[in-house]
Amino acid sequence: MVSKNQIKLIISLRQKKFRVEHQMFIAEGFKVISEFIEAGFELLNLYVTDSNLFDNDEMFSVVISEQELKKMSALVTPNNCLAVFKIPKAKPFSDSGLVVALDDIRDPGNLGTIIRLCDWFGIEQLFCSETTVDVYNPKVIQSTMGSVSRVAVVYGDLAKMLKTTTLPIYGTFMDENSIYSEDFSKEGIIIMGNEANGISEGIACLVQHKITIPRFGAIQKTESLNVATATAIVLSEIQRKINGK
Fold it and tell me: What is the pLDDT of residues 153-196, one digit of tens each?
């Protein structure tokens, strides 16, 4: 059994202010939960509808009904398990390597996909502006499919960071230098902008290398690409060039 107070607490963690207050976040599904456990995140509570789901004698789980899980779940179609983890201490930003920086990304699905892309393309750090959606939003956690456990996500003043970095700064815009003719360094910051407005003026003036993904269609009426799709194309091209593949 799970108490009404526990259910109330778990439901409250869908909101950022309660995640910050309690320093907790939720994850759902066997694969996602397993990834966090394997990465060393502190597990606070584990609720399952099947007592045999996690084969670990050292890990205590509470068996609940599907109806109880439905009350707790942030998913339209609940899985068979839900876990509450402690939010780890934020890692400091390291001014090295390839870094993706997000300027005011608001959609949880986009952030989650970008985190997965960083994991796929070997980007170890993701710097988020303070107005970017919270990485511990349940929708972000689910869409990362565990990749957030392997990518350091840092929040802070994006403009301040860019003014002090020693790395070359790249930014994605419309009608600038094609990514296919741009030379990329093995270290640098790649800025991706807001879904509707792109990179803001205050950040755009700090960009040293303005790049674009050229359109090849004959009509060319498509206004823009989804930011996660654009991130995939940019990271693929950068890694192809710097790795010589």
Answer: 999 999 999 999 999 999 999 888 899 999 999 999 999 999 99
Residue whose structure tokens are 């090849």: 216
21: number of Cβ within 10 Å: 11
Q: Is there a contact between 124 and 152 (Cβ–Cβ < 8 Å)? A: yes
Strand partners for 66: none
Give me the amino acid identity at 121: F
Which region, left, alpha or beta, applies to residue 97 given φ > 0 means left and ψ of -120 to 50 means alpha? left
C-beta of residue 114 within 8 angstroms of C-beta of residue 102: yes
Residues in the chain: 245
CA distances from 114 to 48, 76, 108 (A): 29, 22, 10
Q: Which of 86-90, 173-177, 233-237 has the lowest mean pLDDT?
A: 173-177
Alpha carbon distance 209, 220 (integer Å): 24
CA-closest candidate to residue 59, choices 70, 68, 67, 48: 48
Residue 225 pLDDT level (bands cut at 50, 70, 90): confident
For residue 222, pLDDT beyond 80 = no
What pairing do the DSSP bridges indicate for beta strands 43-48 and 62-63? Answer: parallel
Nearest to 105 by CA among 227, 222, 210, 235: 227
